Amino acid sequence: MESKKSLVGTWKLFSYEVEVKESGEFFYPLGENPTGFICITENNHVMVTLTGEGRKPASSSEDSTELLNSLVSYAGTYRIEGNEWITSVQVAWKPDWVNTEQRRQFEIKDNHLRVLTTWRVMPNWADKGLQRSILTFVKTD
Question: What's the pLDDT tens digit per position in 33-64?
């Protein structure tokens, strides 16, 4: 079981992949080299921002839509229950996440934070069935 103290800090995204439960397939929804950070404070606040590989400034409304599709960002307060952290989302890039709880399993090993979402059907790839996101971060402070 991990402690809150070991989770507190700033973590830089190292990798982000999605695992498909039925086939065991892995894919990279934000490319093979996405960027991002998680900032977790001692006073129970968390901020998450992930961006896709190769983002460029928008020059059309279609480009703006694509930029939104290559972004994950939310913030709120959190609590720890065993090896899970639960975020009570207060602001998010997707309005339907606001006022929800997001559960993440986590483990810390050798200055790396591994984060797993619950198995669920993700709207962007509903045809693939149950999936989970697996993210790895490296501590920066």
Answer: 999 999 999 999 999 999 999 999 999 999 99
Pairwise CA distance, residues 90 & 76, whole Å: 5
Report the distance separating Cα 79 and Cα 52, nearest Å: 28
Strand partners, 106: 115
Buried b (16+ CB within 10 A) or exposed e, 8-17: bbebebeebb
Task: Give the domains, in start order, of the chain with CATH numbers.
Answer: 4-139 (2.40.128.320)
Q: What is the pTM of this model?
A: 0.91
Query: Which of 118-125's residues contact partners 24+ apart within 8 Å by CB, and which partners?
Result: 119/21, 122/18, 124/29, 124/69, 125/18, 125/29
